[in-house]
Amino acid sequence: MTDRPAADDTAAQPESEAAAGGAPELVPAEQVTAALEAAAEFKDRLLRTLAEMENLRRRAEREVADAKIYGVTSLARDMLTFADNLRRAVESVPAEAREKAVVPWKTLIEGIELTERDFLSRLGRFGVKKLEPQGTKFDPNLHEALFEVPDETVPNGTVVQVVEDGYAIGDRVLRPAKVGVSRGGPKSTNQSAPT
Q: Which three-class secondary structure state does DSSP give residue 22?
């Protein structure tokens, strides 16, 4: 008997001819158009999702940064009364009484002053800073005007007296400074002259 090729070998020849160089099967134009539209839609959705994820990441970073800066706001606001009371304690002792005070009283006064400086320094580590409005132009975002002081020597609208210190945390006002504002002086240089 002679070896003859199996029937499977002859059946495979037409397939190989089609794969090797025969005409490919054509896809209808509608299917191609639909596939391209679907691909464009998926690309658009992908780009929108990526943009949304980037915005979400930025928002989360901003919220974390704000939480780090402003997370102590409530506690800091409550502690300002303590700082005010330390300042009042120091200011309640007249200068001449300090000079004439015996050593234990001088030590007590110096201890209160040291405690105040240390406390304000610790608040500063959390971004709380004292506002220094004396001699500046009144700013309703930073100051609360309690009264006006007739004073011709300073420009109108200048802070001439600080009744209660103000504080800020980061770029937000924690407590506005309560101030007295000048009235009746020359116009401030920041104001434009009428034409």
A: coil
